[in-house]
Amino acid sequence: MFDLPVATGYSILLLFVVPLCAWICWTDLKFMKIPNRAVYATAAVWLVVGFLVFPFEPWAWRWLNLIVVLALGFILHLTANVGAGDVKFAAAAAPFFKAAHLGFILPLFAAFLLGAFFGHRILRAIPAVRAMTPDWVSWKRKDFPMGLALAGTFVAYVAFIAFPPVQDAFFALISR
Description:
mainly alpha; globular
């Protein structure tokens, strides 16, 4: 609607994405669930804020990302035991991502997945941490709160697009 530069649009989106992702991480750690309200709120941010800060055509086409990720996620839910909340959150976040960036998104997700998994496992092994959060379900379950990796990837991607100098510095660092 306002046709702002992409980085400015993503800077505005970042203001909404960070608190949503913090909420999603907390609920996934505490309850091992991503609430539908959080999924709806994520989609609503793209629906309203995305519409206001991006041109109509790319904003509208990005809804296709939601459908594709939801379909792939449904297959992963049935075949690989991926959680339904994780699938719904990934689908709701998908319109924020540009499909042409898939070559960057997948390694970014892999890095966050490894970091979140090992970080969670290390922290749950520390008695003082568990004592501070004794009611967190994720400490007791074998499965992993995937919302941590999904939310981390989401925030990092939006931040990279919002701040091109950071993105340039990162790519310069990894291309050495």
